[in-house]
Design brief:
The structure holds 2 protein chains of 2 kinds. Chain A has 9 helices and no strands. Chain A is mainly alpha-helical. The chains are: A mainly alpha, B mainly alpha.
């Protein structure tokens, strides 16, 4: 049977760092998509994936096998993303980046040309508040459980439930608006 | 149960984390409550739409960069450990010598200087030899994993990278060799197949490689690959390829240049 993520990470922790290659092959696409939906920037997302695996090596002694590897990895991924934002926009306070926009920005008519459903979903996500987008991506690409997402974000599981609900509600509304624009 | 309490469970329901009893409670409620039913239907539709979002693939740069980083890290780690072990030994010896005879220190310092100069060589060879060999095996395995993974990518550029990665592998195993032969025989891209010919040339002495190259001759349609294969087989003086060359010439429908090269090759082989 293939070794679990945690077994591989334990091996990496013990100095068999080449085992990280298997973890890379298992998770780098999910990480890339996570970053891509957060940043909208392919090159930056690729750099961030690299950065995460570099940090995993650097901080491998800190891995605790009680939790799932993916949870730890996404905690690192979020830190890498925060540092990326800090470097890119030194004047904007970090909290503001995760604040809800005061009101949803109007969707420009010009961009509402015919699109496939997948494009619509992607564009709707782009209009979603970053925090909500982040949660939905953790479900979509890594299949984390509510409890695990709470651990990644460092919040109560109840908070995650409320946020998932709100994120889906917002996303549905934005999707409807984009779709409506397409029809008219 | 109030609508609020029911809606609090929607996230659990969607992520399939609700036990049977709780699920039934939600179902009973929404059967009777139109507002909650509509809410759940909308959330479910949006939830399902997320699956439409395709998983995008990063470029080959990410994988190449990762393995480069890993190898660099591993090299650094190994050097650190070996150096530390050596330094520990020297320190222990120094302490003993100093305690026994202080006057010995000056001589010891001179010895240490020489030892220091020699350390760079000592670390690489000597007792560390076996560890370094084990490390080399690991690096080889790692390279093979990358190569195999790249060879199965949909993009021809990445498959080309995969072929070139195999060339960095010292004595590749059967899996890698079979993947190269498979690439040579059935990759849709002629450049990738040509690269596979070159890579297999490097491993011509591995068991079965010459036979696979000979057998591949009958499978190739592109003149460029045919010529490359003929040249290779002639160069390695694979006499068993003569039959394959004869069959190729006899098969007809051959590009005139390929036919000429095959006839010439046949003369050189016999």
């Amino acid at each position: 049977m293939a070794p679990t993520d945690n077994e591989l990470m334990e091996a990496v922790k013990d100095g068999r760092v080449e085992k990280l290659a298997v973890l890379f092959e298992r998770h780098h696409v999910a990480l890339f998509n996570f970053f891509l939906r957060l940043t909208g920037d392919r090159a930056a997302s690729e750099d961030l994936v690299q950065d995460v695996f570099m940090r995993i090596l650097k901080y491998r002694a800190g891995f605790q096998s009680e939790g799932r590897f993916a949870v730890w990895m996404f905690q690192i991924a979020r830190n890498a993303h925060v540092d990326h934002l800090r470097k890119r926009k030194p004047v904007v306070a970090l909290d503001d980046q995760f604040e809800e926009p005061p009101s949803p920005e109007p969707l420009p008519e010009a961009r509402l040309e015919a699109q496939s459903e997948a494009d619509l979903v992607r564009r709707a996500l782009d209009h979603l508040a970053p925090r909500k987008r982040e949660i939905l991506m953790l479900f979509r690409f890594e299949g984390l459980k509510l409890r695990e997402i709470a651990d990644v974000l460092g919040v109560q599981v109840g908070t995650v439930k409320v946020q998932v609900h709100r994120a889906l509600k917002d996303l549905g509304r934005i999707y409807g608006e984009l779709q409506g624009g397409k029809v008219s | 149960m109030t609508c609020n309490r029911i809606q609090e469970r929607f996230a659990d329901l969607l992520t399939d984390e609700l036990d049977e009893a709780a699920r039934r409670e939600v179902q009973d409620h929404i059967a009777a409550c139109a507002a909650c039913r509509t809410e759940l239907e909308e959330l479910t539709a949006t939830w399902a739409r997320l699956d439409l979002l395709p998983a995008e693939q990063p470029s080959g740069r990410v994988r190449a960069g990762f393995y480069e980083m890993l190898e660099r890290y591993k090299d650094g780690l190994e050097r650190q450990t070996t150096a530390r072990r050596f330094a520990d030994r020297v320190a222990a010896w120094w302490e003993r010598a100093w305690l026994r005879k202080p006057a010995f220190a000056a001589a010891a310092a001179a010895v240490l200087l020489v030892a220091g100069i020699g350390a760079g060589y000592g670390i690489r060879g000597g007792s560390g030899g076996r560890e370094v060999a084990a490390l080399r095996d690991e690096v080889r395995d790692m390279r093979q994993t990358v190569a195999l993974s790249l060879l199965s990518q949909p993009s021809a550029v990445e498959r080309l990278q995969g072929v070139s990665y195999t060339q960095q592998v010292d004595r590749p195993d059967n899996r890698t060799l079979s993947a190269l032969v498979e690439t040579l025989n059935s990759d849709p891209n002629v450049n990738v197949r040509l690269a596979a010919v070159d890579a297999l040339y490097l491993f011509r002495d591995a068991p079965g490689v010459k036979e696979s190259l000979t057998a591949s001759l009958a499978l190739q349609q592109a003149p460029l690959v045919q010529v490359a294969l003929i040249d290779l087989l002639v160069e390695v003086r694979e006499s068993r390829a003569a039959e394959a060359l004869k069959a190729l010439i006899a098969g007809g429908k051959l590009d005139p240049a390929v036919k000429e090269r095959a006839e010439q090759g046949l003369k050189e082989l016999i």
